[in-house]
Amino acid sequence: MAHDLSPIETAKFVAARHAAGMVESGMRVGLGTGSTADWMLRCLAERVHTEGLRVIGVPTSRRTADLAADLGIPLATLDEVKWLNLTIDGADEFDADLNLIKGGGAALLREKIVATASDRMIVIADAAKEVAQLGAFPLPVEVIPFGWQTTRYLIEDMLVGMDVLGNRCHLRLADDNPLLTDESNHIIDLYLNRIGNARHLAMLLNQIPGVVENGLFIDICDTVIIGHADGRVIVRDRTGATQAEDRSDLPDLSNIFADTGD
């Protein structure tokens, strides 16, 4: 059965497929979280089943672990493998220097740990995720539940002196209750509109008691694969140079969807 994709899903798919094609047999691969990463898991699983690709995946969330297991991708924990050859993940925003905002899926803590335990991080994204300056997407900050309102106050107070255009901070909810991350923490979303100095902001956020981690990924991503609705894929490195540009027809997606029953 073939599946018709919207333009945005087409862009996500072609980026994910290109990244999955870069995985080599024998690799230990960090598996990201989110809708684009879900496509990558399906494409990677297809290679495992049809090509006999040998990989060990380290998931960045329970959601990813469940989907990868359903798709038949062999899994291990980060403690078991110690270090990874590659991590492939999505992003909510990325700029020209390949700095990122991540955490829309509330998995930023595990995502950052896994990405920094890798030789290389590849981000897969549709073209709409590229921005001139970070900050339009709310910046997620993971905080412990104890005293979270005090932590939010300290964050708001710190933001007064920062080069940002907004300082609203809201606790993320799920079904009218505080969302709990896989580590049983809360997420405070910072509505900043524009971040003037992302590196400085990331450092100051992590100095606030109660903050576990923030969604600014600075100097972590090595390569971004940008998918377009017309099937084009652009691969860019941290220098801003375009490494490759490719365009291919969409395949029949029957096999990819068949593994999950979608």
Walk me through the structure.
The protein is of the alpha/beta class and 262 residues long. It contains 8 helices and 16 strands. Strands 2-1-3-6-14-15-16 form a 7-stranded mixed sheet, with helices on both faces. Helix 2 (35-51) runs parallel beside helix 3. The longest helix has 17 residues, at 35-51. It is globular. The N and C termini lie close together (11 Å). 44% of the residues are buried. The model has no long low-confidence stretch (mean pLDDT 93).
Number of separate helices: 8
> Mean pLDDT, nearest integer?
93
Q: Helix/strand-derived class?
A: alpha/beta
> How many strands in all?
16
Please render the helix and strand layout as text:
Layout: H1 7-20, E1 27-31, H2 35-51, E2 55-59, H3 62-71, H4 78-81, E3 86-89, E4 93-94, E5 100-101, H5 108-116, E6 121-126, E7 139-143, H6 148-159, E8 168-171, E9 173-174, E10 177-178, E11 186-191, H7 198-205, E12 211-214, E13 216-217, E14 223-227, E15 232-237, E16 242-247, H8 254-258
Parallel strand pairs: 1-2, 1-3, 3-6, 6-14
Antiparallel strand pairs: 4-5, 5-13, 7-11, 7-12, 8-11, 9-10, 14-15, 15-16
Summarize the structure.
This protein has 262 residues and is of the alpha/beta class. The chain has helices at residues 7-20, 35-51, 62-71, 78-81, 108-116, 148-159, 198-205, 254-258, and strands at 27-31, 55-59, 86-89, 93-94, 100-101, 121-126, 139-143, 168-171, 173-174, 177-178, 186-191, 211-214, 216-217, 223-227, 232-237, 242-247.
Any key phrases for this structure?
262 residues; alpha/beta; seven-stranded mixed β-sheet; four-stranded antiparallel β-sheet; 8 helices
